[in-house]
Amino acid sequence: MKKFHLIIGVIIVIALVAIVLWVKSALKDNYIELGSNETIEPTPTQIQSIRDIGEWEFLSISAEEMVDTVRKGFFSDDELVRIYYGTLRLGIDMKSLADDAISVKGDSVEVVLPKVGLLDKDFIDEAKTKSFYESGRWSPQVHEALYRKAQRQMLRNCLTPANLEAAKTNAEAQFRNFMLSLGYQNVAIRFE
Amino acid sequence: MKQKKSILIAGGIVLLLMVIGLVFSCHSKKQPPNIQAGLAQGVDTVPMLIMQVQKCSKLYTAEYRVHKIITHDDAFRLKGQLMSKSFNVKVPLADRKIAIPMDAKIKAYIDFSEFSEKNVERRGNKITIVLPDPQVVMTSSKINQQHVKQYVGLTRAHFSDEELANYQQQGREAILQSIPDMGIEETARANAAKVLVPMLTQLGYAESDITIAFRRDLDFKHSYQGLIRIED
């Protein structure tokens, strides 16, 4: 009887070991994860308009501007900080070059150039914007307001008399070089 | 046992996410309807500006305005393998979708910074201006914030500013990749003549005597064979 109990015990132990080994092998490659996809879907890029332009750029000002906004709360304040990137291009719109802007006398040439200014008021690359810090939830209207704020600040800081003067000086130098390359010995550049 | 623990932990995470989602959705309802007011109350922005000023001589001759709708379907999925059986199921009430309309300006320019007498060929009354090939740049982009549409499931948090910026950057990259198919370089070449020819006619050249030529990798050691010539 004792021997019988011993055999039963051994069989139970072997069965238990076998079950443990089987479960272990079955669970060996198990994994579980929660996740989502971070990439955008492929969508077409549509050309809305094609325009002939004649913008001659003489000074390029690349700017990055950090703007923020704070909303006062009962327990804590919410804050949104973004970094905007833009490039202001200063130069001459050649479309406004007068029909009699260039006059030639022998080997001398006189050029009257239009005023140097900002070539395009759309200079912020908003899709390049970096989000620096965000607490709380912010509406698209706030994002739009921050964009306008960054635009105003970039204009104020970059469109300075000093930069306009630098663009004008470079325009003069470049046009002089252009005319000299065409073979004129005496070049006079004036601005409207 | 460890696996059971991990399953329990995963279950716990799902429960936690649901609770967080509910808390956030409740929190959002408490926001005032006009968040614009938040900006008005905001502390003055401390401007941090970094500028890089560079002299250049670039003649932009073509401008393309492009439009793209960036879309992202952010389905929350439970993936895994149990007892040698793999599964990949959508977590219910955990979908997020967003569509971001975006406009961009792409311009092509001819670099005149290296322009010299080497770029000019004269034979009698005829003149040829040899220019380097146009280059293309995205000069600006604008997100149409008013028309951004998003749907957020009950258990998910709203899209964060960082996520939105990431999708917008991906959209920008997609536009840049599509530039070679737009044909902007050809337009830029043709338009260069429209800017330069009137100047040369003012200098006394007849339109029929003017040639604007382009060449890739302008190198004056080689002959001008293979030039793409546009005669005006």
Notes on the protein architecture:
The complex is a heterodimer of chains A (192) and B (232). Chain A is an alpha+beta fold. Chain A has one domain. In chain A, 34% of the residues lie in helices and 38% in strands. Chain A has helices at residues 2-26, 140-158, 161-181; strands spanning 31-35, 45-71, 78-93, 102-105, 108-113, 117-118, 130-135, 186-191. In chain A, the strands form two sheets. In chain A, strands 2, 3, 6 and 7 form a four-stranded antiparallel sheet that branches. Chain A has a three-stranded mixed sheet with strand order 4-5-8, with helices on one face. Chain A starts with a helix and ends with a strand. The relative contact order of chain A is 0.16. The mean pLDDT of chain A is 92. In chain B, β1 and β2 (85-111) form a beta hairpin. Mean pLDDT of chain B is 80; it is low at 22-41 and 218-228. In chain B, the strands form two sheets. In chain B, strands 1, 2, 5 and 6 form a four-stranded antiparallel sheet that branches. A four-stranded mixed sheet of chain B has the order 3-4-7-8, with helices on one face. Chain B has one domain. Chain B is α+β, with helices and mostly antiparallel strands. The radius of gyration of chain B is 29 Å and the shape is rod-shaped. In chain B, 31% of the residues lie in helices and 41% in strands. Classes of the chains: A alpha+beta (192), B alpha+beta (232). Chains A and B meet through β1, β2, β3, β4 and β7 of A and α1, α2, β1, β2 and β5 of B. β1 of chain A pairs antiparallel with β1 (48-82) of chain B, so a sheet runs across the interface.
